[in-house]
Design brief:
The protein is an alpha+beta fold. It has two domains: 4-84, no CATH class; 92-292, Porin (Beta Barrel). 28% of the residues lie in helices and 41% in strands. It has four helices and ten strands; from the N terminus they run H-H-H-E-E-E-E-E-H-E-E-E-E-E. The chain has helices spanning 4-22, 25-29, 35-84, 181-187; strands spanning 92-102, 122-123, 126-127, 135-148, 158-176, 196-212, 218-233, 242-257, 260-270, 282-292. It has an eight-stranded antiparallel β-barrel with strand order 1-4-5-6-7-8-9-10. Strands 2-3 form a two-stranded antiparallel sheet. Helix 1 runs antiparallel to helix 3 (35-84). The relative contact order is 0.13.
Length: 293
Amino acid sequence: MINKTKLALGIATATLTLAGALVSPQAAAGKKAEPCCADNKIDALEAQMQAMQAEINNLRAAQARPADAQKVQELDEWMAKSKKEKPHHDNTLFFRGGYGHANAQRGGTLDPTENALLGGGNRNGQIVGPIADKDAWYMGAGFDFALTDNVWGAMENTQVLGELMFDYKQYANGKPNGLSPAEVGANGPLTLNTQNATVSQFTLAASPKIKFLKDKPFRPWLIPVGFEVNVVSPPSNAITVLSPGMQFGLGADYRVWKDIFIGADARYHLTTGSTDGVRTDGVTAGGYLGIGF
């Protein structure tokens, strides 16, 4: 910054110069100056005044320049910091798993094997009948795609995302899916299927997800309603494998490092009834690992 003393000295110097021009030897002696000399002195005085004004302008500009330079420096530092600290990504790839429970026995092509004509309700020491297992484990993955950061202007710091998710549920390791060798001999070659069937279900779902507290470490969310399609195995008695339905969910995640999240969720899966004897209503609850991108 320019020293104020320098400015004062410059003004004083210019003033003394002006005074010296006015007080000439001829003026001190009371003598009348020649016209040509008077014109020269006036020109010199005007030049000195212009020089003094230019000096003052330069000093003023020099004083204002450091403030502008400081603002520019602060702007450069802010830009460098913004580039260094990248914002968190809004899209997420997540992997999930946990526990599932069905509301009712699912039903399917295994149920008719309790018919007495096909060997009764006991085969090789196993009770054969409806698919009684209601408890399952599941694993899956999905994507969250950001649609808006503020519910289209209605709520600040509240995101709306589109979730595309799929998972696999397994209710039982295996169930008899046919007749024993003795029953094959008694009922003929049409009953040769003696394999076991894994009772499972594949779900593909698309849902809107509302996530609160954007850019905070802890972010709760909810799914008001979503659409899902379930693929069941074994199929229904009518050999139907698809069961459409809805899902509702809530959960929360926590940012552990940069764009790495851990979270937990619970979802309720609802259908309007059974699909050709197969029921897929139930709940899932578990945890997930998310990666922002």
